[in-house]
């Protein structure tokens, strides 16, 4: 079976140029290295955004601020009972007061541990979904018990984070497109330089009956093969770095960082980048060579 990128030995002898060939391979290796890193960033940020949305869409916190500790505790128990009875509520739990005191300690010092210090009651609620109607029902239920109850959505707190993650995702996608465009430009320059170098040889081929399409096929195979070799080298290095960073982020114990990991489909798509760029290089080389030959020869 003959691969589309392979060339018989006469073609390699005709077009190989030693150092220039090696330079093309390393240029493509660098291009694919940066492209795969940008693609991994985009996939990782997209996964983190989806994970953040799933984690926070149905999470609420009810805050009760009452000067009377007895009334505050009674209202908290009433809210716990009533909210737990709402269909679609998966978990309702009051935050431990000792935990709240520890969170306040960096700002209040030891005074934050004083049991006489008035402290709000905090109730964490997990819903089955982020349905606005369900969230509004929980809010109305809590306020029916205590008009001073404040219901906060976690998604609102972290909306700037979600917006930043979305921006990074689009930025990474733009980088991939930019690198693809740069690769096409490099191929165009390489093809035109090759035509100038082998102008006399191409003229002889035309005299022997070769068509522009046959000549273009020589260049596109050569450039596609160089792109594929360089792309495999760059992609392998980039995937190794991504895997290393993924293992390190998994040890941080952060829910947000855990969502940055790549899915299996992401790895497969990143691994196919060399082939995709080789096909892009082949098409760009064909167009460049045919246009140049059509104008000059």
Automatic annotation (TrEMBL):
InterPro entries: ABC3_permease_C, FtsX. One of its GO terms (biological process) is cell division. It is found in: Cell membrane. Pfam families: FtsX (PF02687). The chain crosses the membrane at residues 21-46, 168-191, 223-247, 267-289. Keywords: Cell membrane, Membrane, Transmembrane, Transmembrane helix. The keyword Membrane applies. GO terms for cellular component: cell division site; plasma membrane. It is a multi-pass membrane protein. The keyword Lyase does not apply. Residues 175-294 form the ABC3 transporter permease C-terminal domain. This is FtsX-like permease family protein. It comes from Sphingomonas suaedae.
């Amino acid at each position: 079976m003959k691969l589309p990128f392979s060339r018989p030995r006469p073609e390699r002898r005709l077009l190989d140029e030693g150092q220039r060939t090696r330079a093309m391979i390393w240029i493509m290796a660098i291009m694919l290295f940066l492209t795969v890193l940008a693609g991994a960033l985009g996939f990782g940020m997209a996964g983190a955004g989806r994970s953040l949305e799933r984690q926070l869409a149905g999470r609420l916190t009810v805050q009760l601020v009452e000067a009377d500790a007895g009334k505050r505790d009674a209202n908290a128990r009433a809210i716990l009972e009533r909210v737990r009875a709402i269909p679609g509520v998966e978990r309702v739990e009051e935050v431990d007061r000792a935990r709240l005191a520890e969170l306040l300690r960096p700002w209040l010092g030891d005074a934050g541990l004083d049991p006489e210090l008035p402290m709000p009651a905090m109730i964490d609620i997990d819903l089955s979904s982020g349905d606005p109607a369900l969230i509004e029902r929980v809010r109305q239920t809590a306020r029916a018990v205590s008009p001073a109850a404040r219901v906060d959505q976690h998604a609102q707190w972290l909306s700037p984070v979600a917006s930043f993650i979305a921006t990074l995702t689009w930025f990474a996608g733009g980088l991939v497109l930019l690198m693809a465009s740069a690769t096409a430009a490099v191929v165009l320059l390489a093809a035109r330089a090759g035509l100038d170098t082998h102008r006399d040889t191409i003229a002889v081929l035309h005299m022997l009956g070769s068509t522009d399409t046959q000549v273009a096929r020589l260049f596109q195979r050569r450039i596609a093969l160089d792109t594929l070799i360089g792309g495999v080298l760059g992609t392998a290095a980039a995937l190794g770095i991504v895997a290393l960073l993924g293992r390190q982020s998994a040890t941080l114990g952060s829910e947000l960082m855990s969502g940055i990991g790549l899915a299996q489909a992401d790895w497969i798509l990143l691994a196919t980048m060399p082939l995709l760029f080789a096909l892009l290089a082949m098409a760009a080389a064909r167009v460049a060579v045919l246009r140049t030959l059509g104008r000059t020869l």
